[in-house]
Design a protein that fits this description.
Length: 104
């Protein structure tokens, strides 16, 4: 799979305070799956990405392939890369289909 890169037409920002809150909740064992930490604005519509989606999005800069992204996140979350690889691949495929990510 090629190195995905963010579509430059998508406006985005990291909600840093929200991400810090989500990380604290995660450390406390709370479910944070639906908590948005990154905002995307595409054609006037806002979308939120959850913590993992936001972390994948941040890394989609055209310099890493999905395997490298999964490896980085595996270190960040102290899990095996294989546990994250399918999620990264699915996320990249979905956002590429939406036109939010482009092949580098």
């Amino acid at each position: 799979m090629p190195n995905p890169r963010r579509n430059p037409e998508i406006i985005w920002r990291i909600e840093r305070r929200r991400r810090d809150e989500v990380l604290r909740a995660l450390e406390a064992g709370e479910d944070v799956g639906d908590s948005g930490t990154v905002l995307l604005i595409e054609k006037g519509t806002m979308h939120q990405l959850n913590l993992v989606g936001g972390m994948i999005w941040e890394r989609c800069d055209g310099t890493r392939d999905p395997a490298q992204i999964a490896a980085e996140l595996a270190v960040e979350f102290a899990v095996e890369r294989g546990e994250l690889q399918a999620d990264v691949d699915e996320f990249v495929k979905d956002l590429t289909a939406r036109g939010w990510l482009l092949d580098a």
